[in-house]
Fold:
Amino acid sequence: MSVKYCVACGMPMRTAKDFPLGDESKDYCVHCARPDGSMQSYEEKAASLAAFIVRTQGLDGRAARSSAESQMARLPAWRKRA
Amino acid sequence: MSIQSSKTRAANPTMQGREFERPKKRAKQKAESRQRLIDAALRVFARNGILAATSAEIAEEAGLSHGSLFSHFGSQEALLAEAISTFGALATSRLHELCERGAGTREVLAAHLETISEREDFYSRLVVEAPMLPPVARQSLVIVQSTIAFHLAPALEADRAAGLIRDLALPLLFNTWLGLIHYYLANRDLFAPGASLVERRGEELLDHFMSMISIGGTV
Structure:
């Protein structure tokens, strides 16, 4: 299987566990899905990506949010919104 | 071309197949040109510096027209952000594999150093110029570093649970590691003149870092 990239965060999705509920037909990854397997909203994704940046690098919250939004603006799912 | 031959061609399934192949071929060529521009940009940024590089130099290095750079990326800033993401994807792909097979902290950090050494000239420019880069590029680098830290976390957790390393917060531990590596890379003309910093001093830096975070010796 060729590697798919999440349309919402860009993560490579290599195995079933990278997909929401293991569903490999989805174009977004497990980290961009809600518990029921549906895709997170823009606001949910921006908040979780900013939290990820704070958790991993300890950036200031606003700087992290700005980086999260900038990253999302480059991805297919959110490009039109930016 | 006669009308008859044209009709025959339209009815020929092989020719219709070729019609379908054209968009595929175009998409492939487009992807190849895009990748050539990214690879060329990484070489030019490494050689000339990121802020000093011009779009004309990058296009020439790629063997493509100046206009093609803008038709693929819209701006040189966007190309820079893509080049940083490409570098990050290569690094995190290797760390991902190590994560999957439960590698320890030292092994993951060594792999991180190895990915840096493969693009050391570019990465050193990135370290020095990061605060001055356009926001889109800076933010692309933030995502790359967070993804690297994320892939380091499972190894740290496992070694911590095994009582091998100290209980330190991930951001501070990761930033301390980057701080050490980046200081040496930013001044590599002093620490490893004319050579690869990672090749010459990487092992020493890794030993030092591991001794700082380890409990009762080395991991």
Summary: Residues 73 and 82 of chain A are 5 Å apart (CA to CA).
